[in-house]
Design brief:
By secondary structure, this protein is of the alpha+beta class. The chain is built from nine helices and 16 strands. Helix 1 (13-39) packs across helix 2, helix 4 (213-232) runs antiparallel to helix 5 and helix 5 (236-267) crosses helix 8 (300-313).
Length: 378
């Protein structure tokens, strides 16, 4: 399993200039290679000798690999849209899906593979162009004891140097071994939502609610109001800062919720966590003027990904189930009907909190939904 660590770089002014030039030249080279591949000739056999760029040869090689990866993803999107349009044409529909725009890198960055950078105590060495020649610079960092231990023992992958606000940081990918999954244990169902960020139900009867949806929605509205106010006065930089701050807060909330869910799962000897496959939630959920903004801005996928990777590190398997009617089906008699706000009451007399009902049905579900919309009985 691959994880990453973000490391702060403490550069001199000259080092910052060299790194900034390298990042700008890197994205310029990748974009030019993508243009060549789409409009001139294939780049499948390109080598460093075929690319004119003011970069070390190791970074030019990485540029070629990145450009090939972008082209593969772009071609895959084009084929998918072409198939969709053919299907619409057969159905006699006049609607057509637009072709995807050509992907371009806009944010300054550069990727360096694990053979071309080295971590030594509190310094990272990697190559840049200085006076037309490739030379290695040693940039001071501030590694925590935890980061030193991780990077010393783990197998390192690619290092990404990127701008974060006004700072430049290094993001280093590393591999960790996953513990084995237990054969016996409880099953946990987790229901994700807006009013209640997460609810868990465990097969031993344990129930827990996570997060504060009302507080989260207040923060969303507050930062949305600030952005609109700043946009009217044309303070674009302030709008970006406010948006970045909001994203940091929401990511921190998702990390805390996922941490608490895994902590609960470990305490109750859970072997499987079941989540809803929420790939189409924005198109299938009933919307209103009041919750439309929250629905279309809430990172359901990110929270589920945090839960998944933390569960895998804890030796817990994660399965995705079909979310259809999980908050409407009575687990006692099987009737399907809507809840009255948060309260679900069935004609058979069963009553429960709607989100808890969803978690219970997810926990008991035997219909597995794969990442590619393939369903089969679990």
């Amino acid at each position: 399993m691959q994880l990453s660590e973000t490391i702060k770089l403490y550069m001199t002014n000259k080092q910052k200039d060299f790194i900034t030039q390298t990042m700008n030249e890197y994205i310029k080279t990748v974009n030019s290679l993508v243009f060549v591949a789409l409009n001139v000739e294939p780049i499948s056999k390109y080598t460093t000798a075929d690319v004119a760029a003011n970069l070390p040869s190791a970074l030019i090689n990485q540029c070629i690999r990145d450009a090939k990866s972008i082209i593969r993803k772009y071609d895959k999107k084009c084929r998918k849209i072409s198939a969709q349009n053919k299907k619409l044409e057969k159905q006699g529909s006049a609607i057509r899906t637009k072709e995807p725009s050509v992907p371009l890198l806009k944010r300054p960055c550069c990727y360096i593979n694990n053979q071309n950078f080295r971590i030594m105590n509190d310094h990272i060495e990697f190559p840049v162009i200085i006076d037309g020649r490739s030379k290695r610079i040693s940039v001071r960092t501030s590694l925590t004891d935890r980061q030193k231990q991780i990077l010393a023992d783990a197998r390192l992958g690619t290092m990404r140097i990127v701008c974060k606000g006004s700072k430049i940081v290094a993001q280093i990918v590393y591999e960790v071994s996953e513990p084995g999954y237990p054969d016996e244990g409880n099953i946990m169902g987790v229901d994700l939502g807006i009013k209640c960020p997460a609810v868990s139900y465990i097969s031993d009867g344990s129930v827990k609610f996570y997060g504060n949806g009302r507080k989260n929605r207040y923060m969303r509205r507050h930062y949305s109001y600030l952005r609109k106010k700043l946009q009217k006065t044309n303070h674009i930089d302030a709008v970006i800062r406010i948006n970045n701050k909001e994203q940091r807060i929401m990511k921190d909330i998702d990390h805390k919720i996922s941490h608490d869910i895994i902590k609960t799962a470990v305490a109750h000897d859970v072997k499987i966590i079941k989540l809803e496959r929420l790939s189409n939630i924005r198109s299938t959920t009933r919307t209103s003027r009041k919750n439309n903004h929250s629905l279309h801005n809430w990172p359901f996928f990110r929270l589920s990904q945090y839960i998944e990777y933390k569960a895998r590190l804890a030796g817990i398997k994660v399965e995705y189930v079909d979310p259809s009617y999980t908050s409407q089906t009575c687990p006692v008699c099987g009737r399907i009907h809507h809840a009255n706000d948060r309260n679900y009451t069935c004609k058979c007399g069963f009553h429960i909190h709607r989100d808890l009902l969803g978690a219970m049905n997810i926990c008991n579900s035997t219909e597995y939904a794969g990442d590619r919309d393939i369903r089969h009985t679990a």
